[in-house]
Amino acid sequence: MKASDLLVKCLEEEGIEYVFGVPGEENADFMMSLEQSTRIRFVLTRHEQGAAFMAEVYGRLTGNPAGALSTLGPGATNLITGVADANMDRAPLLALTGQGSTKRLHKESHQIMDVVSLFEPVTKWATSILHPDTIPEIVRKAVRLARTEKPGAVHIELPEDIAKEQSSLPPMKPRRFRRSVPDDKIIDRAFDMLKKAKRPIIIAGNGCIRRRASKQLRLFCEQTGIGVVSTFMAKGCVDMDADYCLYTIGLGSKDRVSLAVDDADLVITLGFDMVEYHPQLWNPNGDKPIIHADFLAAEIDAHYNPQVEVIGDLAHALWMLNERVAKEKALDFDLAAQARCRTAMAADFAEHKDDVTEGSIRPQKALWDARNAMGPHDILLSDVGAHKMWIARHYQCHEPNTCLIPNGFCSMGFALPGAIAAHIVQPDRKVLAICGDAGFLMNVQEMETAKRLNSNIVVMVWADGGYGLISWKQDTEFGTHTDLSFGNPDWLTLAASFGWHGHFVSNSADLEGTLRTALDEQGPSLLVIPIDYRENPLLTRKLGEITSTI
């Protein structure tokens, strides 16, 4: 069969369900082959970056990769930001790019660049198909690497002349195996450290949002009472209503949660990636006793030098610890500081729940209302900007993968295309994206994609007419900020021009009701609020007062 047909057959064999992207001349054969597939759906997007973000969110929510397609040259460079975001946030993804004929790759030629070398730093593996008979092995390896802990992005390039060649080889049959599990002696060492501790605390990272890991973590905490501090990526690994949930850590400034970590005499990190919250911020002297439990060995860092490393399947490691906890007669911990932290944080969340401001809306109120309007299994996606900091601190979750935040690579423009993919994966759940006006306009063209797909999503834009996070940080460090303001469209006209429902709410008393209306509408809805970012420096001041007086 033709090489492009074989590539599609191999993707089908791996269970690939979606390819998001923008076609070009150099991947025309692949597109014709994909058109014939009854098992893979191609979703045409308006920009390659949007395609990559859609594939990333699909991977986050399912644990399986989707394809993110572009042509060569500028298509590939457009794709790379979303691919890098997926890779650093541990989402399985297949980047599929076209390429010119191998007969012209050695010389200066139209749109030719070394795409594989471009993708190598932001993927787990990148390769070019140089012979059609290598396709079954390449696809099998790529999908396996994308799915293997820790998951990430891989890149396959198909030159246009290779796509037309013939191969008689069949696809390879996928074989999946159980992950390696930790050694009993290592678990015993970790448990001995736990028994000697008086004030242990858990920092839960990205690896804990896998459903098996979350289940075992909750059982561990129910047996021990040990508090869990979640990174931005780990929201929902334990239920926000559980007494042992200590909410989220990750702000640049120290918070109440940071004080609970300071008080601990043992830190247990579970599925923790260093890009989530650098240990220098919670272990500045490098003297905290640490148990590192994860799929991979710890990164080498002066502020992160674990006494015990539990390497292997995280859910199984927690199951092994749970067995030991169940057999132990009593574990004597002093967790009073953690209880005080939870109580104080909960009071912070509720402080502005009854706001009746007019003309602008405080971030705290917007997120209180969003949490009320969203069910336990509904999905919120955050873009990147000042709103992300507020979401990280104030929006808590009941279940894993119900708050998706780009954290490692931190790319703006994530939430709108990501919401489209979230609705594809979970069409029966409410999907809410929260964006700043800057991030929303970076991929505003995907409004057309959402309308064409009739995506039941709501995008809430926090409009402040500027780069709010940058001004917040500049003000904090320098006492002033550079000119970061810009103009915005007429939001309701913008919504109407794309066939979206449109809402503008400037009074806080009207927000929750309007949001509920938007969430119940058929098709995409845009809800814009003038955000009161005067709260940004007030939060900075509050955090400083908290950490200086306790």
TrEMBL record:
State if Cell inner membrane is listed as a keyword. no
The chain positions of domain Thiamine pyrophosphate enzyme TPP-binding read 383-528
Q: Which InterPro entries match?
A: DHS-like_NAD/FAD-binding_dom, THDP-binding, Thiamin_PyroP_enz_cen_dom, Thiamin_PyroP_enz_TPP-bd_dom, TPP-bd_CS, TPP_enz, TPP_enzyme_TPP-bd
> Which UniProt key words apply to this protein?
Thiamine pyrophosphate
List, alphabetically, the PROSITE patterns matched: TPP_ENZYMES
One Gene Ontology term from the biological process aspect of the record: L-valine biosynthetic process
Q: Which residues form the Thiamine pyrophosphate enzyme central domain?
A: 187-321
Q: Which domain of life is it from?
A: Bacteria
Q: Thiamine pyrophosphate enzyme N-terminal TPP-binding domain: which residues?
A: 1-117
GO MF assignments = acetolactate synthase activity; flavin adenine dinucleotide binding; magnesium ion binding; thiamine pyrophosphate binding
A single GO CC term for this protein reads: acetolactate synthase complex
Coiled-coil annotated spans: none
Q: List residues traversing the bilayer.
A: none
Q: Which family does it belong to?
A: Belongs to the TPP enzyme family.
The molecule here is called Acetolactate synthase
